[in-house]
Write a structure and sequence with these properties.
It contains two helices and 17 strands. It is mainly beta and 167 residues long. The longest helix is centred in the first third of the chain and has 8 residues. The protein has a five-stranded antiparallel β-sheet with strand order 2-3-4-5-6, with helices on one face. A five-stranded antiparallel β-sheet has the order 16-15-14-11-17, with no helix packed on it. Strands 1-8-7 form a three-stranded antiparallel β-sheet.
């Protein structure tokens, strides 16, 4: 994060958000192929080209230790995604706005979030969960795969949460 703007490394963008991403380290050009449009960015320049249209960026793409970084607010607008920063864990949370979401509330002080859906797996979080709203991603027999507001992803016993919202 720099001056309130979140930057994300291009390899992370390529792996998790836009697979068709290219970078030319010689001229600093970054190209993203998104559905029906081509987005061109240039490191250290505050203008992007989308198709034939130039768009002002809030922050300029940059290179740190030979890795290009893209301002996330720009990507959020282009791709209809929501970005949050969980400062406690220094984690960036990216959600697609069009994806179905299920929220649930932790209802027990005994709740623990674990690394896998097993009582024998290591505990990731075991304190302060009661009352917290978590996002539910998947279901595994007696467990839900969830993400906390701090960006921790793990598994919680179904007995300890109740569904509050689907949207």
């Amino acid at each position: 994060m720099e001056h309130g703007e979140i930057f994300i490394a291009l390899p992370i963008v390529t792996k998790y958000i836009v697979p068709e991403t290219y970078w030319n380290s010689n001229d600093g050009k970054i190209v993203l192929a998104v559905k029906d449009k081509i987005i061109q960015l240039q490191t250290n320049k505050s203008i992007a080209v989308i198709g034939a249209e130039s768009v002002e960026l809030g922050s300029t793409p940059k290179v740190v230790e030979n890795v290009p970084y893209i301002p996330m607010q720009f990507l959020a607008k282009m791709l209809d995604i929501k970005i949050d920063w969980a400062g406690v864990n220094n984690v960036v949370i990216v959600d697609y706005m069009k994806s179905k979401k299920q929220l649930a509330q932790v209802v027990s002080a005994n709740a623990e979030i674990r690394t896998s859906p097993s009582i024998k797996s290591p505990i990731l979080v075991s304190y302060g969960l009661k009352g917290q709203v978590v996002r539910v991603f998947d279901e595994y027999k007696k467990w839900y795969k969830v993400r906390t507001r701090d960006g921790v992803i793990g598994y919680i016993d179904k007995r300890y949460i109740k569904s509050i919202e689907n949207y």
